[in-house]
Amino acid sequence: MAVAAPGLAAKVVIDGTAEGRIFRLAAPISFWGGIDPETGRVIDARHPDRGRSIAGRIVCLPGMIGSSSASAVMLELLRVGLAPAALVFGETDAILALGVVVGRELGYPAIPVLELPPAAQAALPQGALARVRAGGVIELA
Amino acid sequence: MAEAARILGAERLIPIASAHIDGCLYHGDSGTEFAEKLVQGSGRVAVPATLNVGALDLLHPKRVHAGRHRYEMALRMMRAYEALGCRPTWTCAPYQAGHRPKLGEQVAWGESNAVAFVNSVLGARSNRYGDFLDIAAAIAGKAPLAGLHLAENRRARIVLDASQLSPALLESDAFYPVLGALLGREAGSTVAAIVGLPKGVSEDRLKALGAAAASTGAVGLFHVVGTTPEAPTLRAALGGMPPERTLRLTAEMIRAARDSLSTAGGERIDAVALGSPHFSLQEFAELERLAAGRRFRLPLYVCSGRGVLKSLEEEGRLAALERQGVIAVADTCVVVTPILPEGGGVLMTNSGKFAHYTPGNTGWQVVYGSLADCVATAASGRLERDELLWQ
Lengths: 141, 391
Description:
The complex is a heterodimer of chains A (141) and B (391).
Chain A: E1 8-9, E2 11-14, E3 18-24, E4 58-61, H1 70-80, E5 86-89, H2 94-105, E6 113-115, H3 118-121, E7 129-133, E8 137-140
Parallel strand pairs in A: 3-4, 4-5, 5-6
Antiparallel strand pairs in A: 1-8, 2-6, 3-7, 7-8
Helix pairs in contact in A: 1-2
Chain B: H1 2-8, E1 13-15, E2 19-21, H2 29-40, E3 49-51, H3 68-83, E4 108-109, H4 112-120, H5 133-140, E5 142-144, E6 158-161, H6 167-170, H7 175-187, E7 192-195, H8 203-216, E8 222-224, H9 234-237, E9 245-248, H10 251-260, E10 271-279, H11 281-291, E11 300-304, H12 306-314, H13 317-324, E12 326-330, E13 346-349, H14 352-362, E14 365-368, H15 371-380
Parallel strand pairs in B: 2-3, 2-4, 6-7, 6-9, 7-8, 10-11, 10-13, 11-12, 13-14
Antiparallel strand pairs in B: 1-5
């Protein structure tokens, strides 16, 4: 019988389950002007992860900057099916989380939103397949 | 609203005096669906609410290159927000269109530059509201008591000291967006106090500073000691506590921050854009002074609110600028919707916010310069930049 790998316990902002590969962004980002809602890719020309897609990933965010339209970009990503599998904030950003809340109200697919300090996020290997369980536990698959 | 209050950890909601709504900018059909759902539910704002830019220039319909679907959905969205009772100001500088909350007043504002301005320059109290929560707060007339609504979260924790920089630099408009870009990167969402600036920094300079800081960082409030209302002294700005960190600004730091605002080298410039945040009457007066007797070879876009453009028009000044080659953009701007010619190029701007968002949003490269540099470049057709200021 396999011993379950210990999971990382994150604080739940919006509960839910998810599965996807870990994508730790290398720098803070503004979703508006930073993520293209039509492709799910990083478009901020000065961002180290430019060109990479957040769609279907468990996206770890070291910090949020910039526009108050981030919630609208998040909502549109949910509508078109290019949203991350889950969001893991270093420090919760109410603007971005609200896009998920409104998505739920409009009947779009919901995703879990968690908070985990940046130092703890570093324990999640870039690109590793992981699961988010209800209650905020992140496990490597 | 209740869900947002829970996420923010707010114990209760408080009444607000006004709102500024950023949610009227089209990013896809979901936003239109949300706004129309509020209209169908007989939503109506309970407090005075101004509207931020939309994705269309309603005064110059051909200015924006939008396909039919995008045009119709963006228009429906703008009309939905009007139907909710918001004032169709269509500007990211509502504080220069008569919407000026009083010192200490609780408000709910969206649009990152407007949040920074209303908190820092007017001393009203707003969190950084995002799309959807801004209109929810306006309809409820209430907002979650958290963050910058609370006095204890408004004191500065870090200090930026500009006293070692040259007086010529501190007296130039071009310095303030650069300072803002640096502030945003250094502070993130932490409240900072800036010391060493001349007393009584103008509103347009503070507007440019805040817009850049809210682009490169998550700055919702900054204090300029000797200028902004909650910072008569450094001690007052810090709330009597010692700062967690003091950063002494050097000419090298300022040059590095200035360089970070440009993504293109070389002499080629294809267009010039001014007015992020939207150009004020004072800024138009400065443009007229610098542009006197010139005709522009390059497209020179100036983005502004319809209120400011109307004043200019009535005095015949807008027509004069247009004869010189100025392209006025109302209700929107060149980085939020397709206005720049397709195919890309190099854009010059005096705005830290345009400089930050242009490459990602438009595919154009960008070069930062002063207003005088921008005017000279638009007239000659190739890059003109006064480097002396930055030595």
